[in-house]
Design a protein that fits this description.
With 121 residues, this protein is mostly helical. 50% of the residues lie in helices and 0% in strands. The longest helix is centred in the C-terminal third of the chain and has 20 residues, at 98-117. Residues 15-45 form the Zn(2)-C6 fungal-type domain.
Length: 121
Amino acid sequence: MTGDKRRAHQKSRLGCKSCKGRKIKCDETKPACLNCIKRNVECDFLSVETASSPAGLNMTDLELLHNFTTVTYATLSENQALREFYRISVVQMGRIARYGTYALLVFCLDNVRYLRMAPKI
């Protein structure tokens, strides 16, 4: 390869359905992009779903969740499949609703307190 550099370009992440379907760059102008205007087709932009942070978690909450997914889940069952269910699925379900997240955090906090008070053998 010679020393030619690629030309810089902007990626189109929020393009319309038509441009995405044709796998072409959308200029993302609204209400209709130029490609759709030229082709005389309906320009339908996908609804933008921004990634939300998990229910306003602070550093302590994140530490509790980390503890659950690295330590606590393994103490809940001897069955490997069930342990993986706790480690992955329960955490995902907890993110669906705010009360699920809080319930999981309370459980994690209770477990951490128990482990700290347990006599060291």
